[in-house]
Each structure stands twice: as structure tokens, then as C-alpha cells.
Predict the structure.
Amino acid sequence: PLDGSYPVIALGALNSRVRQDLMTSDTYTWFSFDVAEGGLVVIDAVTNGMGDPQIVLFDDFGRQIAYNDDANNTLDSMIAARVLPGTYVLGVAQLYSDTQVMTRMLFERYVPGK
């Protein structure tokens, strides 16, 4: 929830590209970000073969928008989702591991041409 009762890393407005490195485990780490106008978000979770991240994206109403475990014939994860203006919440966790793994997160936003 975004009411402050659970730790969420607030990335603020996702204008173009944000990179975040963190240690992940089998417990979800949560991020929130804001989108000012509709478009596409692409989110990657990369461990360079050291882990098996999964990611899940929710809108501010709590509806699951996207989920990914393995992308592009790797154990890394990637989501590409159309979004409308609003706040989004992303969870990342490692599958099959209770140890911490360095995970590089990349959040990118694309807007339609005008």
C-alpha cells in the first residue's frame, strides 16, 4: 500500500530513465513512480547471471498490470507495459534464493510522438 504502512522506495516522476542498484532476496522490494502522461514503460531487473529476479507491476488502484520472471532467454526479467497518467508500484524479488543478490533495475518511459 502507498499509505506509508509498508516500505516503498519512491522514485518520483519517471521522466525518461532511472537506474537503481539494490540487494534483492526472496522478500519483495517495492518501488513507486509517477507517470505524467500516457505512454510505455520498460522495466528491467538484471543480475548478470547471479540470480533469478521476478518483477510485478501494479497501478495505483492495486490492479496487476504486468509480471515477468524470465526474459530474452535469460533468468533476468523485463516488463514493457502501456501506462496512463498515475502512480505505479513495482515489486522485485529473487526466486529460489534466500540470499541477497545484487540487482540492477532500469526504469524507462517512452511517450508517443506528436
Summary: The longest strand covers residues 101-110. The CA atoms of residues 1 and 62 lie 8 Å apart. The chain has a mean pLDDT of 93. Strands lie at 9-13, 17-24, 29-35, 39-46, 53-59, 64-68, 77-83, 86-94, 101-110.
